[in-house]
Amino acid sequence: MAADLGTHSWIGADAYEPGSEFHQRATAFLAAVKWDLLASISSRLWNGIPCHVHARFSIGHFNPVRRIEFADGASWVARLRLPPLEALSGGNREAGAANTLMVEIASMKFLKAKTPIPVPEVHSYCADPANDVGAPYILMDYIDGTVAAELRAAKECELGLYGAPDQDRKFRKDMAAIQATLSLFAFDRIGSLYQDDHTSEFFIGADIETGKGPWASSAAPDVQTSPSFAVPVLFKHLIARYAEEESTRGPFRLTNRDFGAHNLLVNNDFEIVGVIDLDGVMAAPVELVAQYPVLTGLDREPPGHVETKPAAISRIARTWPRLEEYRDLVGVAEAEIMGAGEEARKEEAANASPPPLPPPLIASRLLSDASSIVQGVLQYRSHQEFVNDKWMEAYLRLLRSTCVPPSDPES
Predict the structure, then answer these.
(1) For the chain, domain boundaries
(2) HSE (CB half, 13 Å, CA atoms) of 147?
C-alpha cells in the first residue's frame, strides 16, 4: 500500500489538539515569521533563482519545517526553532536553544563530510532568536521521505514490523550500519559535537542537556550526577563494577542518543533516505554507544526482571529474537566497515603509516549488563513511577550479585 510521502503527508498545526497551548503557539509563531524575507535569503544563496515557500508544513515540539522550492527544481527546507512555552526571556533557555541548533548543524556537516550517512546539506543558518526573520533557522536540502514511525502507522504495518518482513529486515540492517558508522569516530572527551566557526574544525564541547562538560572521564562527578545520565544513586556504583576500562578513560565514541524510527526518513519501501534531528550526537562512553534504537520494538527488560502478566510475557518472547537479530546485524555492519577500512589501509601502506583501525565496538556490548544499566538510567528520566521501580529493583539485584560476603574470622 502506497502512502503520501514528504510534504504531501505534512498536516501542519493539526498535529496538535485545536485550542491547546501547543496549537496556539504554533499558529502564532508561523504567523509572525517573515517568510518573504526567508525566501529572499534563500534565493540570494541559490544564485538569485526565484523561489516560493510551500503552504504545507510539518511541526514537532520544537521545530516547524516548511519546504522552499526554486524555479530550477531544487528544493530546500526551512527549519525554525519554536520559542519555549514558558514565558521566559534570555538566560539559559535561549543559550540552550542556540547550542542545540549549533550541535545539530555541526553534526549534519560532520556526517556529510565524513560518512555515507544520508543527511541534509546545510546551506545557511542563524542561531540568533532576535534575527530579522523572527526565529533561529536552518536552510538545508529537502529530502523526499516520511518519518519511519509515521509511515508505519499510516500503512498499518503488522505488529513490530516496518513494512513487509523483507522491508523490515532491510530497514533494521540500514539502522545497524548507521549506528556502526557513527561509532568509528573516537574522541578524548565526553560531550556534544560542535564546529569552530573560524577554523571549521570539529570538537567536543559542553553537553547540550546539562550545559556542563566536556569531560575527560566518565568518572567525573558531573557525568555521574547530571540529568543527562539520569541519576539513580546506585548508577555510579554499578557502572564502576560493570563498565570496561575504556568507558572510564576513553577513547569515547560518537553516538546519537536520540537515534530511532522517529528521526529516520524513509521511502515507501522503508528504505532509509535521511537522518534528521541530530542534536543528540555526542561522544560518549561505550555503554551509551551500545544502546538499541528507540521506538523500534527493541526494548530490553531490566536484568533479572520476571514478568507474570501474559501480555508482557508474550511481548518479551517476541522481542528477544529481534534483539539478537539486531545485535547480529550490527556485528555484520561492523565487520563490513572494518573490512573496507583494511582494504583502504593496504592501499595507503606504501606511502604512509595510517593509525590502527578501532576494534568492533557495539555488537558485543548491546546485550551486556553494563549497557543495560545505562538503558535503565535513560529510561529513569521519564519519571514514570512503575518504570523507575522496575529498574531500581534490577539495580538492587545487580548490586547484590556483586557483593562478596565478609569472610568468617573463625573459619
Answers:
(1) 6-144, 150-402
(2) 17
